[in-house]
């Protein structure tokens, strides 16, 4: 299947985007049979309960309020990776890719 061929392990989706609301995109992702199995983590500057509820009800794996510092982002990415590793069944020949930040910093523990 296309999903098996795509090297996508997780989708980080910002709610605030210029042309389309992140919740609309989340609905489209979850309606697409090839993208639907990929966990989506929603990022937002808001922590409004109604936004969190809506995202989860649309199929988001998690909702993360954007942190204020780069170090906090690193902690969140580490925690997301650890949670994802616990949820997936490892395949001997495959390892998840390391997490890369725009600075080139890798969170890989390999």
Give a structural overview.
This protein is α/β, with parallel strands linked by helices and 110 residues long. It has helices at 2-5, 22-31, 49-57, 70-87; strands at 11-14, 40-44, 62-65. The chain has a 3-stranded parallel beta sheet with strand order 1-2-3, covered by helices on one side. The longest helix has 18 residues, at 70-87. Residues 90-110 have low confidence and may be disordered.
Summarize this, please?
By secondary structure, the chain is an alpha/beta fold. It contains 4 helices and 3 strands.
What is the CA-atom radius of gyration, in angstroms?
15 Å
Write the element-wise H/E pattern from the N-terminal end onward: HEHEHEH
Strand order of the largest sheet: 1-2-3
Largest sheet: 3 strands, parallel
Low-pLDDT residue spans: 90-110
Give the N-terminus to C-terminus distance in angstroms.
Answer: 28 Å
**What is the number of helical segments per DSSP (H or I, 4+ residues)?**
4
- Give the percentage of residues in beta strands: 5-15%
User: What structural category characterises the helix and strand content?
Assistant: alpha/beta
What is the typical, i.e. mean, pLDDT?
76
Shape: globular
Helix content: 25-40%
User: Based on DSSP secondary structure assignment, what is the total number of beta strands?
Assistant: 3
Secondary structure layout plus pairing:
Elements: H1 2-5, E1 11-14, H2 22-31, E2 40-44, H3 49-57, E3 62-65, H4 70-87
Keywords:
single chain, 110 residues, alpha/beta, three-stranded parallel sheet, 4 helices, disordered C terminus
């Amino acid at each position: 299947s296309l999903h098996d061929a795509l090297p996508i392990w997780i989708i980080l989706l910002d709610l605030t985007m210029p042309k389309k609301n992140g919740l609309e995109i989340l609905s489209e992702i979850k309606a697409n049979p090839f993208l639907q199995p990929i966990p989506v983590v929603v990022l937002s500057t808001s922590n409004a309960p109604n936004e969190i509820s809506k995202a989860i009800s649309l199929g988001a794996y998690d909702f993360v309020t954007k942190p204020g510092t780069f170090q906090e982002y690193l902690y969140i990415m580490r925690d997301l990776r650890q949670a994802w590793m616990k949820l997936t069944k490892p395949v001997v020949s495959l390892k998840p890719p390391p997490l890369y930040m725009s600075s080139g910093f890798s969170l890989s523990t390999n």
